[in-house]
Every structure is written in structure tokens, then in C-alpha cells.
Specification:
4 strands, mainly beta
């Protein structure tokens, strides 16, 4: 199975009527989002056929794979971070 999807472009700040290819993975350990799902924009196309031609291994999704990041482990604005990092 591939880690790429073709779907209608949708994210936190946009909603497109174009076919978008995304690469899926996990954020690295050095990210504040470490271990969470990561979705990277690869390309946009006017038609599904064009997208499938360029990315034949990608899975076509009838829905958006966007999921908002979980940020509840981060300190609130103005909150002090303990010296030991916990």
C-alpha cells in the first residue's frame, strides 16, 4: 500500500475543488508534533485522471484525510515551562 492519497484539497485554512495529492507519514522526534500523523501537499490537478496518471500508486479517497494536530501537550500562552521540561 502507498502512503499517498488523491483527494479533493481540504485543510485547516483551505477548501479546494481540485484533486490534490498528499504524502502521509509521522512527524519526527524533533518536532513538537512528534509521533502525530503528518500530511504533506505534493501536487494539485484539475481532474482525477491527471492526478492518477502522475501518481498511479496513490489511493483515491472519497473523503478528506485532514486531521487537526493535537496541541494539548503544549503550554498555554504565558505559562512557564519547568526547567526539567515536564
Amino acid at each position: 500500500m502507498t502512503d499517498q492519497t488523491i483527494e479533493k484539497g481540504r485543510g485547516a485554512t483551505y477548501d479546494e475543488d481540485r484533486w490534490t495529492v498528499y504524502q502521509h507519514g509521522v512527524y519526527d522526534r524533533d518536532s513538537v508534533l512528534s509521533g502525530q500523523s503528518r500530511r504533506i501537499w505534493m501536487d494539485d490537478f484539475d481532474t482525477l485522471e491527471e492526478a492518477q496518471k502522475e501518481y498511479p500508486e496513490a489511493v483515491v479517497c472519497a473523503f478528506s484525510t485532514y486531521t487537526p494536530p493535537c496541541l494539548n501537550h503544549l503550554p498555554e500562552d504565558g505559562e512557564d515551562i519547568p526547567e526539567d521540561g515536564e
